[in-house]
Write a structure and sequence with these properties.
Helix content: 40-55%
Structural class: alpha+beta
Radius of gyration: 23 Å
Number of strands: 14
Shape: globular
Largest sheet: 5 strands, mixed
Number of helices: 20
Distance between the termini: 69 Å
Length: 481
């Protein structure tokens, strides 16, 4: 077969632009998977290749990338990365709400020049946050009476705000006081404006569009966060006014509703895996508690978190826009390389790539708690934090939070430096796996081959993944001995 690069397979949908927008916002999983299934039906000989597929998303030509190899190639290959733009891809969705300079939206070479300083700041931050996280997790669960029934995602969203805001601002006041509640409310307005299906700012005496409210919230938040920085209520060392403004701009993202909901999504999935999922008849929490070696326990907890990231990334994917024609290689001798023209968008679909059997084997769609313990060194991680030079700054921070939540729930941090360690509760969550909807079990990797319509019915995916209906969990706790 010819090795001449070809355009992505498929053709633009015939849906109107408005219908496309509603279809995509309703369920990216359903929208993308429907096009993948149509491609597989039309091209059965290469149905399993995960070759890039052409679609129309938000009225633009899009190459949907669901192969782990291709996502890594696009994010890590310097030749390809130099022909991609984050800022252009997110110009309408994020740029108006997160003022420049912002690492998330910067392209090379500006991105590399600024990221070094931020990596140093985040490394210092990661060194001293575990006691703070432990205290917040302990107090969160201690406030909930034993034998209560909780909505797990809503509980984790509240906890995520309780963790993120004290980490980045008001570290001397860890409670959800009026100031923190104001930040949360403003960030919610900003997020609604950012993801509004009505992308026009209208402000009248009688009605304001969500986008208009979101832009106003951004201005108010900028002033509020700049004030916090000027008062020294943030953890970063500030050398001059320019650095202070840069830090305030990034705090807008670090304390965003998007960040809180992403953390809540991950914690929800981790705790469901920890307490409700069963392997050989036992919960993973029981298996961890049975381990006597602390090093082995830590490795096992890390493996559970990595497997959760792989299957259940909070953000389903990211976008890039091509500034030049690019070519991604083929995945087999019978399939030619793929040409993606200049000015196309790339949708890097982390949910699909994390379940690519070419990388993760026949059990790619299934949750295996010991996968990373038993894996060959060459096995890739999931893509929850991206890859390459633009890997998420918060990767280590979020993994620290997830680890501390698990260890605190299991009583493994008893004796940590807290004001009242004797009051640390050991948490047990009870739930019936069979009562979870099929789409939720598919999200977690508990049930393979879940149909796209089931996923769309049971899961919300924008701005982050979470169950559509409450996941009710029975909570019990006892004091550590």
């Amino acid at each position: 077969m010819s090795r001449t690069p070809v355009l992505p397979y498929g053709s633009p949908t015939t849906l109107s632009g408005i219908s496309e927008n509603f279809s995509f916002h309703s369920s990216p999983e359903n929208f993308i998977t429907a096009r993948i299934l149509a491609f597989q039906k039309a091209h059965p000989s290469i149905a399993d290749s995960r070759t890039p597929i052409r679609a129309k998303v938000l009225n633009r030509n899009v190459a949907v990338i669901s192969s782990y190899h291709h996502v890594r190639q696009i994010l890590c290959d310097e030749t390809i990365r130099s022909c991609l733009s984050s800022s252009q891809a997110y110009d309408e969705l994020m740029a108006p709400f997160f003022p420049p300079p912002n690492l998330l939206l910067l392209d090379p070479p500006d991105h590399q020049q600024r990221k070094g300083a931020w990596l140093e700041r985040m490394a210092v931050l990661n060194d001293d946050i575990r006691p703070l996280i432990h205290t917040q997790v302990r107090d969160h669960f201690r406030r909930i009476p034993s034998n209560s029934v909780i909505d797990l995602y809503e509980s984790m969203k509240f906890l995520s705000w309780q963790i993120l805001l004290p980490i980045f601002i008001q570290r001397d006041d860890c409670g959800m006081g009026a100031g923190n509640a104001e930040i949360e409310a403003l960030q919610e307005d900003l997020l609604r404006g950012q993801f509004s299906l009505f992308p026009i700012s209208i402000n009248t005496p009688f009605w304001r569009s969500p986008r208009s409210k979101g832009l106003q919230a951004r201005q108010t938040l900028q002033a509020l966060l700049q004030s916090k920085v000027d008062q020294g209520k943030c953890p970063f060392v500030i050398g001059n006014a320019k650095e202070g403004q840069d830090i305030a701009n990034h705090l807008l993202l670090f304390t965003s509703s998007l960040a809180a909901k992403a953390l809540a999504s991950l914690l929800t999935a981790v705790l469901l895996n920890l307490f409700v999922f069963k392997e050989d008849g036992s919960s993973l929490s029981a298996k961890i508690r049975a381990l006597k070696d602390s090093g082995r326990r830590s490795q096992y907890i890390r493996s559970i978190i990595l497997e959760t990231e792989r299957l259940s990334p909070p953000v389903v994917g990211i976008m890039r826009r091509t500034t030049e024609d690019i070519v991604v290689d083929s995945r087999g001798e019978t399939i030619p390389p793929t040409l993606i023209p200049k000015a196309w968008d790339l949708w890097l679909y982390f949910v699909g790539a994390g379940r690519d059997s070419a990388e993760f084997g026949e059990t790619a769609e299934s949750f295996e708690s010991e996968r990373s313990l038993n894996a060959q060194p060459s096995l890739g991680e999931g893509l929850a934090f991206g890859a390459g030079s633009k890997t998420c700054l918060g990767k280590d921070l979020i993994r620290t939070v997830a680890t501390e939540v698990v260890e605190t729930c299991l009583g493994l941090t008893h004796g940590a430096e807290t004001d009242d360690p004797s009051a640390d509760p050991i948490i047990t969550l009870h739930g019936n796996r069979n009562e979870l909807p099929a789409g939720v079990q598919g999200w977690l990797g508990w049930q393979p081959k879940v149909r796209p319509e089931e996923w769309a019915r049971d899961m919300k995916q924008l701005p982050t993944q979470r169950p559509r209906k409450p996941i009710l969990i029975h909570l019990q706790h006892q004091l550590a001995s």
